Amino acid sequence: MTTPQSQGKGAGGAGKTTAFGKLRRSLSGRAHWALGATAVALATWTGTLRAGTIYVPNYSFESPVVPEIFPYATNALDEWEESPQPSDYDPAQNYDTPWSYLLGTFYNVPFPGSYIDNVDGVQAAFLQAYPEVGIFQDYNSIGGTNTVPDHAFNATFNVGKAYTLTVGLTSSSDEPLTPGSTLQLSLYYRDKASNQVIVASNNVAYDPNVFTNLTQLIDFQVQVPGVKATDPWAGQNIGIQLLCTPSIELAGGYWDVDNVRLVETTALNLVHPAHTSGQLQFTVQSEPNVVFQIMATTNLSLPVTNWTRLATLTNTTGSLPYMDQSAALARRFYMAQQLR
Question: Class for domain 19-27+52-262, per CATH?
Fold first, then answer.
């Protein structure tokens, strides 16, 4: 990354350029029940679930349209809201770089060595790796140049559902990140005081041994297991945040960000247990066509490898009754393990 005008040092520290100079040349949740006089525990062990995509406005940062002329970048991001400027950030101490210039949208110019091969569309976002530089989006976010929330992102944490956030990341090839610099990806909700409360997060660290090709985005994920009715985020609007979290000593360089995806799945779950004539029955809920095995044990302290495998089933419709026809037991634990 270079700048329209070289200004020596930017917010990231010595040798860095100002941020608006971004110029591209180029679930394993578990649930338990007690049932009557016979103790019964049901659990789930989930793998990869099939996805139902939730629309994230401006997920690939195609808006606003960046002119295909120098400097091929803008500090505007429609739908996304910029994290507020921290009290210790002084533009005068950072070559008069406004806080709003530390992030924005760039056109993926097809220049050799800096063109990102797997960008979705023709644009992506940039975030300078400086503490608290970030973007977020929820039901009440303003975003871009709008003055009021448009409520375009109105997804909620629904009971019985699991959520996966996937974001494509790389380092700028023109101004690479410092090894160890971090970016936090998170899913959150707002409490009654409108504070962001993180439900799940992933702190991605820049490692040249992982990011071996800076012209390729790598997907990183945040996962929220099956939402329970007792979870404080149940029924609340979902928020997405991407926040730079490096120490000030590691500040500098840019994260390139694209293709923010959010999917909702039916969490693999065992529900509605019933005990009749010495036999236990329950219903397996999941995404349709998930293949899983039912396992059982009388000793919860045993490793899963020592549990008894009762059956391998395909949940064709997403809701499948199951009855254990084994001999009556005073105590038994059950688990559904997803196979594919």
Answer: mainly beta
What would the pLDDT profile of 255-282 be if each residue is shown by its tens digit? 999 999 999 998 888 888 887 777 788 8
Q: E strands along the chain, which residues?
A: 39-45, 52-54, 73-74, 81-82, 103-107, 123-128, 134-137, 161-171, 182-190, 196-205, 218-224, 239-244, 254-266, 269-276, 279-285, 290-297, 308-315, 319-324, 331-338
Report the DSSP beta bridge partners of residue 312: 293
Cα–Cα distance list, 321 to 118, 140, 185 (Å) = 43, 41, 37
Q: How far apart are CA 124 and CA 39, in angstroms?
A: 54
- Chain-centroid distance, C-alpha 241: 8
The sign of the CA dihedral 175, 181, 185, 188 is negative
Cα distances (Å, whole numbers) of residue 129 to 47, 169, 184: 33, 13, 11
In CATH, the number for domain 268-338 is: 2.60.40
- pTM of the full predicted structure? 0.79
The answer to whether 62 and 121 have CB atoms below 8 angstroms apart is yes
Q: CATH 2.60.40 spans which residues of the chain?
A: 268-338
Phi, psi of 201 (to 5 degrees): -150, 165
Comma-separated ranges of CATH 2.60.120.260 domains in the chain = 19-27+52-262
